[in-house]
Structures are given as C-alpha cells and as structure tokens.
Design goal:
alpha/beta, Oxidized Rhodanese, domain 1, five-stranded parallel beta sheet, 11 helices, 10 strands
C-alpha cells in the first residue's frame, strides 16, 4: 500500500492545524449531518455537483475541478483528505478527483462513523478560505471503462467482472438494495459472467477497511487474485460502491490492473440489446 493514502483518524486529527492539509466531506443528499457536526476545517460538497460534469454523464473535468478547488482555497500542492457520508462517497470522489488530476489525495479510513466512535473533535463552525490560483492538471482516465468496452469483452478470459451490489440486486430481485424505492434501471439482473462480492464485506462495523490480510482472503474467495494478466473491472449501480473495491485493490493490496465500469447497472440495465443474467 502506498504510504498514507488511507489515513487514520489519529493521523488526520494530528494535522488539523496544518495549512497544507484540507478536508472535504462528500455528501449524498444534503448537508444536514454536516451542519449538525463535522470534522474541524472540513467543507461540504454534494457528490454530483463536484464529481460529475454539469450536463454530460461524464466526470468532472480537470478545468472544473481546478476551479472548484481553487475557489475553496485548495491549491495544486495541497494534501486533500476526503471522507464520505455515507462512506462510499468519499471513495467515489477520490476516484473522480484522481482522474481529474489532483496530485495528493488521501482517504480518511472509516469516514464520519469511525471518527465519531473514537470520540474525536467535531464542530459546527464553517470556515471560509480565500480562493487561490489552481492551474488545472492533466487527466488520467485509465482506471475507468465504458459500456462498449464491457460488451466487447464479455467472453474475455483475461477479464474478471466484480459486482459490488447487494445480494438482491445481483440476483435480479431488485434494481436497488432494500431500504430505498426500487429504481435506477429498466431491468434487474447482472452483467453476464460477473462474480459477486457485497461491498459491506470489505468494511468493519465502523466503516473502516478490514485488514489487508482479511481483504486478500475475501477477494480470493470470489476468484480475485493478484494475477497481472487478469484485468479486474468493478461495478455496482452508479459506481459509488464499486469505488470501495477499486480503492482496496489498488491502494491497500497494490493490484495493478483494476478499473471501474462507471455506467454500472443504471446504464447496463437500461440499454436496448445488451444481455443480462439473473
């Protein structure tokens, strides 16, 4: 694992006063939880506003991310610490911002849950930071694949598809996991040949990642091994949960050939003419 990519709450709390380190809480719906309490110094961003293009179903561009970060007082040399509420949104932003070119990004292990359970500092204070100049970086989209790529490689023996959704989504019982209105695609099922691994199996009860040894065992039980000639492609419904597996494989276990199908089931389950399994 690359040193300090996955940072602990203690590592982060020890550096809250470091002007070269900034925190962003990536939220899924609104900033109610953030307003009630958040990690000192953290700002709040809605995931879709900052991870996606304004109109196209594409990711934030390097130019747009540079403007967003610069407007928030975050420069190109700033160490950016991300955490999500829920946990997968921090991972998703880590992936999107990596593709858009920010050089130094860390992920807070356990996000809000572990931080709060350890009794660490929380605040209601929202800080304003003066804007800075941020010349945009070069993008790197090598860790994503599109629908045509998936379709062309369904029978590729050198690719392993990993479905990170809930059991009921993988089986075709539902399009979205229990607890929400069942929506997001026209059909239920899975991409042909996909192996299943529920994303929650990667995490402890406090939303922190399980140990590297535990993760390696969990992945290997699904057929995922560190074999250089095998490309691993993760997906879920919108690719948020898939980013948890991508991060674990890439930054904890140091696998070299891992990508995400970002259209995931919301795209695949609604396209005319593509096969599914149940």
């Amino acid at each position: 694992m690359k040193k300090n990519i996955l940072v602990t709450p203690k590592w982060t709390e020890d550096r809250l006063n470091d002007p070269n380190i900034r925190l962003i809480e990536i939220g899924s719906e609104n900033d109610k939880a953030y307003t009630k309490s958040h990690i000192p110094g953290a700002i709040w961003w809605f995931w879709k506003d900052h991870c996606w293009h304004e109109t196209d179903r594409q990711f934030v561009t390097p130019e747009k991310l540079a403007k967003n970060l610069g407007d928030a007082g975050i420069g190109p040399n700033t160490t950016l610490v991300l955490y999500g509420d829920p946990v997968q949104y921090g991972n998703y932003a880590f992936w999107a911002f990596t593709m858009a070119g920010h050089a130094d990004i860390r992920l807070l292990d356990g996000s809000r849950i572990k931080w709060q359970q350890e009794g660490r500092k929380m605040t209601t204070e929202v800080l304003d930071f003066p804007p800075v100049l941020y010349p945009y970086a070069n993008p790197n989209s090598s860790m994503r694949v599109g629908q045509q790529n998936i379709l062309s490689n369904l029978n590729n023996p050198h690719r392993l598809l990993l479905d990170l959704r809930s059991p009921e989504e993988y089986s075709g019982e539902r399009v979205i996991e229990y607890g929400s209105f069942d929506h997001g695609a026209q059909r239920a099922g899975r991409i042909p040949g996909a192996r299943h691994l529920h994303y929650k199996d990667l995490l402890n009860a406090d939303d922190s990642y399980k140990s590297a040894e535990e993760l390696r065992t969990i992945f290997s039980m699904t057929g995922v091994t560190d074999t250089p000639e095998i490309e691993i492609v993760c997906y879920c419904r919108l690719s948020h949960r898939a980013s948890l597996a991508w991060f674990a494989l890439t930054h904890i276990l140091s696998y070299k050939n891992v990508k995400i199908y970002d259209g995931s089931w919301t795209e695949w389950g609604s396209i005319v003419g593509v096969p599914i399994e149940k």
